[in-house]
Amino acid sequence: LGLLLAAGGFDPTVIVGTKLREFGGSNFRAGKSQYLVIEADEWNRSFYHHHPRVAVVTNVDREHLDTYKSFAGVKKGFLKFLKNVVGEGVIVVNHGDPGTRRVIAKNANWLRNNANNIIWYNRGRFHAHPLLIPGAHNQANAEAAWQTAKYLGIKKSAADRVFRSYHGSWRRLERIRPTHYSLLSTLYSDYAHHPTEIKATLAALREQYPKKRIVAVFQPHLADRLNSLFKEFTRAFGDADKLIVLPVYKVAGRHTE
């Protein structure tokens, strides 16, 4: 979305949670306009501090349970964030995600007064975007970016130029070069640490390499997440032919037991 706004002449400031080659290997782009694109984070309720004009919700899942304690708590957290949308603001939400639909459906009374301010995307089939990176989740994310850009007045031709040139970001299905060039395998690095993310990533690789053998090397991120979502983790690796599991990564300052 930051790249689409830049291509559309909005000159935005952009802050995201990963590095982009288009930003010189940084996660930050300094713009000179009033526009700010920020990847909001729900952990520790930090996104409560944002009061956006446009809020894009890609999914609501059983994540950051160390903060919200339960899925019901997560959904309440997202509703509180969405109520921060200011003025004549717009909410862009993923109809293809069950958690997002539940947040909207269970708050129908509040939303009756804001129904004109909701843009659903991924509602049924949509035309595939000309992406270089595989995966249904990347197509859905591109559709979210496009629907938001269209609302802001950006032309489809400008958006397609961005989609055709975008090679992905650091540690998001990032293809890496092995130091040992006799290695015949193709290697990818990905930060997916939630079962939903893992399933999406492996499905994208299976789409890209339908006849290849896929070996997943997984390091669980936080013992608390692994314990809370253990059943979901056991079902997340179906597209891998082999799974290698490393010891749990412990994050300083986070609850890990």
* Coarse morphology: globular
Mean pLDDT: 92
**Classification by helices and strands:** alpha/beta
Approximate helicity band? 25-40%
Question: Can you characterise this structure?
Answer:
The protein is α/β, with parallel strands linked by helices and 257 residues long. Helices cover 33% and strands 16% of the residues. It has 10 helices and 10 strands. It has helices at 2-7, 65-68, 71-82, 98-105, 108-112, 136-151, 156-165, 195-208, 223-228, 230-234, and strands at residues 13-20, 26-29, 36-38, 54-57, 90-94, 118-121, 174-176, 187-189, 215-218, 242-245. The chain has a 3-stranded mixed β-sheet with strand order 2-1-3, with no helix packed on it. It has a 3-stranded parallel β-sheet with strand order 4-5-6, with helices on one face. The chain has a two-stranded antiparallel sheet with strand order 7-8. A hairpin with a 5-residue loop joins strand 1 (13-20) and strand 2 (26-29). Helix 3 (71-82) crosses helix 4. It is globular and about 55 Å long.
